[in-house]
């Protein structure tokens, strides 16, 4: 499996996800939307597995490869949210956002080869990045809910239900981020001799973690505002974006130990 095959698997997956999202609006039963979304995920996972075998390493090194996982996990987060809280629009939202990342990968693919620097050959590398990508997808779904709330605030009937869903997504997302940070610390100790060095990437990871903790603690206040909570959630997601790829454009990142995508 080579990167040239990606467009065929991606288009097939997006068609299945889009069909599932469309059926979610027109049907009270969850079976077909869930089935079509799952089939799309299977198609996409076949490509990831094939690329993994072809590269003889986890496809997690370059930004394009992490976008690949993010494109996969977004519909997963959307499907879980749909099945648990029955918000039909979430499937279409996550499908659209996943498609955006897929298009970016088609238009601007990174170089994919078998070279993997020694630090990335650690068994902690794959679970660290995969867990982080899953958390990013969950928190991306939560951010879509926040945007939906702010745009349609006056038309939402059951705000308490929506806030419960948002809180649950954030709890799951920050739990995964915390686990990813712990695995990353173990990996760093083995690879570089220390658990934490306040490297630019690590600093923004800590800022992201604190951002979501602020949301959680604010929500625990009895006098908390739903609108302010959603704004905090969007700010935290902006911090997440800086941590994921924005930090690569900072001058301080040029000497970062996390600059290993080239």
TrEMBL record:
Presence of keyword Secreted: no
Keyword presence, DNA-binding: no
Subcellular location, principal: membrane
InterPro entries assigned: Cyt_c_assembly (IPR002541), Cyt_c_biogenesis_CcsA/CcmC (IPR045062)
Residue ranges of coiled coil: none
Protein name, as recorded: Cytochrome c biogenesis protein CcsA
Annotated GO CC locations: plasma membrane
Transmembrane segments: 6-25, 32-55, 67-83, 90-109, 129-149, 169-190, 202-218, 230-247
Keywords: Cytochrome c-type biogenesis, Membrane, Transmembrane, Transmembrane helix
Domain Cytochrome c assembly protein: 85-250
Compartmental location: Membrane
GO molecular function: heme binding
Topology term for the membrane: Multi-pass membrane protein
Pfam family, one: Cytochrom_C_asm
GO aspect biological process, one term: cytochrome complex assembly
